[in-house]
Design brief:
The protein has 354 residues and is α+β, with helices and mostly antiparallel strands. The chain has helices at 59-63, 65-80, 117-132, 143-162, 209-214, 225-232, 242-260, 282-292, 305-314, 325-332; strands at residues 10-13, 18-26, 30-37, 48-56, 89-99, 102-109, 165-166, 175-182, 185-192, 199-200. Strand 2 and strand 3 (30-37) form a beta hairpin. Helix 4 (143-162) packs antiparallel against helix 10 (325-332). The N and C termini lie far apart (52 Å). The relative contact order is 0.10.
Length: 354
């Protein structure tokens, strides 16, 4: 058990006291702890909350007052964006006194006790394996639930995009499961998390210059072609809202494949002599190369026509052909989406690798 006490520094949002109890997750730039609120009578009526500790090493920010002010506004923005399909940030503390070349940020947010969508899909796969080996089955996923999940993610994206915010790294691991207990029983709701590395748009159509030219984010399997090109700088492309729509299409496809028991999530098992890059495995890098070459993931023929069409439109290229988040929501509320899994995909759906 780790005792992690609040840091001293610039604090925004709720003035709560807490202590970190134990490590939940660890990444390249920080850690996430399950924290205990020690402030009596807090407005959450909850004992536990999530604490994300992020470490930055940026001499430019530390030496430039205008850059520091941009950083403050960036984190304050997280406290302003409120939506039931987004993770809630309650308190942010910035400390730049521990080191002359780095600073630490404590992000106090809601504790989503249901885990994340990536973990849920892994449990579904494990359940299928258990069923084949006559072990007890516990976790399942059906099409109606998958569509409901996609609706909630699209609704969260719509809120972000309306506020000129691009997530930039949407994937199952960054989609959290909120557990709500009320008179009706226990309900689950998906919320988009990991918002603290968002891309701020300068206006309604373009990203701010400092972000569009220097900001690199995303996970290879869920990155759109334009983001892959941006990484390789051939050519330099400023990310837009539609990078999130591509990622949503990848998530919907992954859920469909999970339901159908397809282990190969993306493409045929294409082997490449490409070297590993950014720490990702060769298969992920091979997928990135194919996406850049104009290939798109395969939508299984068993997918209901309306749902398949929605996935294909999200995976369209160029990005202008992809729908807005609001349009995705409209498509997902179409009754045809909930047809049986045996329904064939529409003739107009041409998402396949040839």
């Amino acid at each position: 058990m780790t005792k992690l006490l609040p840091i001293q520094g610039e604090r925004y949002g709720q003035n709560w006291n807490y202590e970190g109890l134990h490590l939940i997750a660890k990444g390249a730039f920080g850690q996430i702890y399950k924290a205990k609120l020690i402030e009596p009578g807090n407005s959450l009526n909850a004992d536990f909350i999530a604490l994300k500790v992020v470490h930055f090493k940026n001499e430019e920010v530390l030496s430039d007052e205008s850059a520091r002010e941009k950083m403050r506004k960036r984190f304050q923005r997280l406290l302003e964006i409120k939506h039931h399909c987004l993770v809630v940030y309650h308190q942010i503390t910035i400390d730049s006194t521990t080191s002359p070349t780095s600073f630490t940020v404590h992000l106090l947010m809601e504790n989503c006790s249901g885990g994340d969508l990536a973990g849920r899909l892994q449990k579904v796969k494990a359940t299928r394996t258990n069923a084949r080996s006559n072990l007890p089955a516990r976790i399942t996923l059906d099409l109606r639930t998958a569509v409901c999940y996609a609706q909630q993610i699209a609704e969260g994206l719509q809120c972000l995009h309306r506020n000129c915010i691009i997530h930039g790294d949407l994937k199952p691991g960054n989609v959290l499961i909120r557990v709500v207990r009320d008179e009706a029983g226990i309900q689950e709701q998906l919320v988009i998390g990991d918002l603290d590395d968002f891309i701020q748009m300068q206006n309604n159509t373009t990203c701010s210059k400092d972000v569009s030219t220097t900001h690199t984010c995303g996970t290879l399997r869920y990155m759109s072609p334009e983001m892959h090109w941006k990484m390789s700088q051939t050519p330099t492309v400023s990310p837009g809202r539609k990078v999130d729509i591509w990622s949503l299409g990848c998530i919907m496809l992954e859920m469909v494949n999970c339901i159908l028991g397809i282990d190969q999530l993306w493409l045929r098992n294409v082997k490449s002599s490409a070297d590993k890059k950014r720490g990702d495995n060769v298969e992920d890098y091979s997928y990135a190369l194919l996406v850049c070459a104009g290939y798109v993931p395969i939508v299984p023929k068993e997918t209901p026509a309306a749902f398949a069409d929605c996935i294909c439109r999200c995976l369209s290229f160029p990005s202008e052909q992809r729908p807005r988040a609001a349009e995705v929501m409209e498509m997902l509320h179409d009754p045809d989406v909930l047809h049986k899994m045996q329904s064939a995909t529409s003739d107009s759906c041409k998402c396949s690798l040839v």
